[in-house]
Please model this.
Amino acid sequence: MDRNLQLLGLAKKAGLLAIGCDASAAAARKGQTKLIITASDASERTHRNARINADACGAICLTVPYTMFELGNMTGQGSPGTVAFLDTGFSVRFLQGLAETEHGLYEKVWDFLEQSSNGYAKKENTGPHGKRRTTK
Model:
């Protein structure tokens, strides 16, 4: 199973995921959203609304290579066209996974998020498996 899809399930269990267009828009209005993703087979209207919501709160909006069915399987809620991460850590890990699997497509976004998170996920602070090392 894809590691990024598993990360969606973990974020949902942690309560750090807004699932669906309405929930993503509400989180964006509150300024809680860090990353909004849209399914590859979502409608053009869904993509446009996600971009508008992301621009309103300064979040990143991406179309991911997953279908609404795949997102729905991992989140357990139908077939959402939009999912929003409410946590920087989950956003960074998700983008890192995309950058690793889809070489070149998401590298610029990963770099931007890494810089905007004040070094939260700097590569030199992570071990060989992406786990954060503690430094003294």
